[in-house]
Amino acid sequence: MNVPADLRYAKTHEWIRVEGDTVTVGITDHAQAELTDIVYAEPPKVGAEVKAGATAAVVESVKAASDIYSPLSGTVTEVNAELSGNPALLNTDPFGKGWIYRMQSSDAAEISALLTPEAYSAQIGQ
Amino acid sequence: MSDPALLKHSPLEPAHIACGARMVEFGGWFMPVQYSGIMDEHKAVRSASGMFDISHMGEVTVSGPGALAWLESLLTNRVGKLAVTRGQYTLMLDESGGVIDDLIIYRTGEMSYFLVINGACRDLDLEWMRSRLPADGSVLLEDQGNDYAAIALQGPDSEIVLRGLYPFCDIPKRNGIAALVTTDGEIPSLLARTGYTGEDGFELFVPVNDGITLWESLLAAGVKPCGLGSRDTLRLEMGYPLNGSDLSRERTPLEAGLDKFTGIDDPEKGEFSGRQALEQQRAGGLPSRLTPLKLSVSGPPLRSHYPVLVEGIAVGETCSGALSPSLGEGIAMAYLPLALHSPGTALEIEVRGRRYPATVTMLPFYKKPLL
């Protein structure tokens, strides 16, 4: 499973990419493989306040609906509009075109509490 | 989830692991939910062929001079209609007309029958049947659930695959059953032309130790391994009910729209368990009717227990639901008041607090293209 070195990870299988004061959130390669064919994604609304560890989005495979937890607290600034027409991007490009939302973090200290790529790799047993 | 130590295991489990199955608990059994993916497996069955392990289903043989009369009293459909080698879908009801199980019964001889019952209620079914056996010994009931491995081969290519595997076998017509090969052992292998997908197909019942060999020969013939996930989407696209989701002791077959599988309109069908309750219900008017629903907009996959509303008022909840892989639309079944059963009726389905417009439609959800 791909675990890019430039990202931070939540134990619940989300990743973040920090660029300036914008944070992009998605699910990991491991998560998409476990969830299998994703057929529906419900991102948060722009402007929504999200809390670290609380449900921010839902993705659904044919078989099950799964909550996506926000790795950080803050405000949603943008959502990936392409996912509504093509939720399979979550499977095919989880770290790229399959991103779910962008946010502004309200608590920088939360970032350092997230897992490093090494720690996340260890968590998923590789 | 039940205690893992109590989970029942299919004789085909090593084959599933070898095929990369994702295993889950289902009705007390440890079974494959998918291999390559539910969408891929679903499409293989609609366009070519797929195979499902159905060893969790129960097999029961009933024989003896009293078998026919006893089965007529136990099951809703008229067993007397069956010629030897023919089968039918039927239901076993309690005295209040609630569904204990839906099953297929085949007549395998002058006085012998082969019943295929649902995996999740094998013990309950057998208990119900045994408690009603006549005391005079005229009916012999045998639980053969652990003697068979069973595989459903489904899809338009099923017959070609089967002919390749068994070139000299008589292949039965729809709803028929044949002895597959003559074996020296006591358990005959059986081949039934039936299924739960809406496609042509067969259910093969072989001695438990021959299961993996059969699975591997089907695999070598190019048949795609399919799990319970696609079995569920395939059956729901056809509107076939699932016991435990769409059928239960709380609903009658009339509410489920299965009137034609009950003998209440057949002048030759006599008394059977639940008959009086069905007649009373029909005379008094049905309290609800199992109704097919379709989302009118693109939206989330439908699942069980989602509220169904009309003008903001809850009128029921979904019992089965899915994103139809063939149609790309959310489909569901719900028990709703009879007045809402007409196709085109507008309503709403609530998913995570949001309401999506939906309409009442007709079964099957999926109609096979003519060409």
In summary, what is this structure?
The complex is a heterodimer of chains A (126) and B (371). Chain A is of the alpha+beta class.
CATH superfamily of chain A: RNA polymerase II/Efflux pump adaptor protein, barrel-sandwich hybrid domain
Predict the CATH topology of one domain in chain B.
Answer: Gyrase A, domain 2
CATH structural architecture of one domain in chain B: 2-Layer Sandwich
What characteristic shape of chain A results from the CA principal axes?
globular
Strand fraction of chain A? 25-35%
Taking all residues together, what is the mean pLDDT of chain B?
95
Helix content of chain A: 10-25%
The secondary-structure element order of chain A is: EEEHEEEEEHHEHH
Radius of gyration of chain A (CA) equals 13 Å
SSE arrangement of chain B, N to C = EHEEHEEHEEEHEEHEEEHEHHEEEEEE
Structural class of chain A: alpha+beta
- Please give the share of residues in helix of chain B: 10-25%
Approximate strand percentage of chain B: 25-35%
Mean model confidence by pLDDT of chain A: 96
CATH topology label of chain A: OB fold (Dihydrolipoamide Acetyltransferase, E2P)
Which CATH C-level class of chain A is it? Mainly Beta
Largest sheet descriptor of chain A: 6 strands, antiparallel
Q: For the terminal residues of chain A, how far apart are their CA atoms?
A: 8 Å
By CATH, the architecture of chain A is named: Beta Barrel
CATH superfamily descriptor of one domain in chain B: Probable tRNA modification gtpase trme, domain 1
